[in-house]
Amino acid sequence: QVQLLESGGGLVQPGGSLRLSCAASGFFFSSYYMDWVRQAPGKGLEWVSRINSDGSKTNYADSVRGRFTVSRDNAKNTLYLQMNSLKSEDTAVYYCTKGADGTRGQGTQVTVSS
């Protein structure tokens, strides 16, 4: 069955960096576009970024463009999100999601605080 396992979250100071990973299994990873979404405390899901199946095209929410970079390694069935210049408003649970069906993992908590 489809499994998505996010990791790499944690507590970081404002201005710091984190790299999230999403290990995928149970489906042909290299055939699907992948998204990162996040959910801040008390708020709904917010789309963060998208990468196409071969990694040649990416897109970002205005709130993270220029600070976050999405990438993938299809040989390792893994999706990444490099997050730089983190702000308190980036605090959220981050999820990777699979293609159009939006299947997501359990998420990883990112907390940006001094």
Structure write-up:
- The chain has 114 residues and is an all-beta fold.
- The protein has no helices and 11 strands.
- The protein has strands at residues 3-7, 10-12, 18-25, 34-39, 45-51, 58-60, 68-73, 78-83, 92-98, 103-104, 108-112.
- The strands form 2 sheets. Strands 2, 4, 5, 6, 9, 10 and 11 form a 7-stranded mixed beta sheet that branches.
Short description:
This protein has 114 residues and is mostly beta strands. The chain contains no helices and 11 strands.
Strand content: over 45%
Largest sheet: 7 strands, mixed
List the quaternary state of the chains: single chain
How does the overall form come out from the CA principal axes? globular
Share of helical residues: under 10%
Terminal Cα span: 40 Å
Low-confidence stretches: none
Number of helices: 0
Task: Provide the structure class.
Answer: mainly beta
Question: Helices, strands, pairings?
Answer:
Blueprint: E1 3-7, E2 10-12, E3 18-25, E4 34-39, E5 45-51, E6 58-60, E7 68-73, E8 78-83, E9 92-98, E10 103-104, E11 108-112
Parallel strand pairs: 2-11
Antiparallel strand pairs: 1-3, 3-8, 4-5, 4-9, 5-6, 7-8, 9-10, 9-11
Which tags fit this structure?
single chain; 114 residues; 51% strand
